Amino acid sequence: MNGLKNIFHGRHVHGLISYTLLAVAAVVLVVALVPLENPSTASTSDVVVSYAQQEDEAKNASSEPVVAAMQKEAVTSAVVAKSFVRNGNEAVNRLIENYCEALVDGSEEELAKYTDSVDDIDSFYRMVFSEYIEEVTDINCYTMSGMLNSTYITAVTYNVRYKGYSTVLPGILYCYVCTDASGNLYVSNKEPGEDVSSYNDMMFKSSSIAEIVSRVAAEHDAKLDADRELAEFLAGFSQ
Question: Is 0.85 topped by the overall pTM?
Answer without folding.
Answer: no
